[in-house]
């Protein structure tokens, strides 16, 4: 690699207009791994493209290839606080032939026809309690990253 080539590929840091390839691990407060790319292909995305929630993307800004960092992401910067209003009670008959069981993740349509995932929490006779909060809502998460490459994004 010549000095001119090295200067063109080096010194890129994460920010607007950059494509990032990294490995990440996302953990709960107790260390339980929620998601990780460690045993598979790394994640590649353009900074600001919406693939990462802003609370996960913001701490990456300014990092360069080779960086290994660990960030604590508070609920309000991750998947939000748990909201009691997102727990709904539905009628057993609303499920038709499907037999809901606690722990099942099911897809529901809201009034606008948008699909929403919900977790069946409990069944009490003809009432089914469904939690529409994101499963990671209310959790402070540990976001570990290993930045592999940072290059200017190719615009289409």
From TrEMBL:
Catalytic reaction list: [protein]-peptidylproline (omega=180) = [protein]-peptidylproline (omega=0)
Alphabetized InterPro entries for the sequence: PPIase_dom_sf, PPIase_FKBP_dom, SlpA/SlyD-like_ins_sf
Enzyme Commission number(s): 5.2.1.8
Origin superkingdom: Bacteria
GO molecular function: isomerase activity
Domain named PPIase FKBP-type: residues: 17-100
SUPFAM superfamilies for the chain: FKBP-like (SSF54534)
Pfam family, one: FKBP_C
Enzyme class, first EC level, given as a word: isomerase
Keywords (A to Z) from UniProt: Isomerase, Rotamase
The family this protein is said to belong to: Belongs to the FKBP-type PPIase family.
PANTHER family hit by this protein: FKBP-TYPE 16 KDA PEPTIDYL-PROLYL CIS-TRANS ISOMERASE, FKBP-TYPE PEPTIDYL-PROLYL CIS-TRANS ISOMERASE SLYD
Protein name: Peptidyl-prolyl cis-trans isomerase
Species the sequence originates in: Halomonas cibimaris
Gene that produces this protein: fkpB
């Amino acid at each position: 690699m010549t000095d001119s080539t090295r200067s063109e590929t080096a010194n890129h840091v994460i920010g607007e207009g950059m494509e990032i390839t990294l490995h990440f691990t996302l953990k709960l407060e107790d260390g339980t791994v929620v998601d990780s790319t460690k045993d598979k292909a790394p994640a590649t995305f353009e900074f600001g493209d919406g693939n990462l929630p802003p609370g996960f993307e913001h701490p990456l800004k300014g990092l360069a290839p080779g960086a290994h960092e660990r960030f604590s992401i508070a609920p309000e910067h991750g998947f939000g606080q748990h909201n009691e209003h997102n727990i709904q009670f539905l009628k057993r008959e609303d499920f038709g032939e499907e037999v809901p069981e606690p722990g099942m993740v099911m897809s529901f349509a809201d009034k606008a026809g948008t699909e929403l995932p919900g977790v069946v929490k409990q069944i009490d006779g003809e009432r089914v309690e469904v939690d529409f909060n994101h499963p990671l809502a209310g959790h402070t998460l540990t976001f570990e990253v290993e930045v592999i490459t940072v290059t200017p994004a190719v615009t289409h």
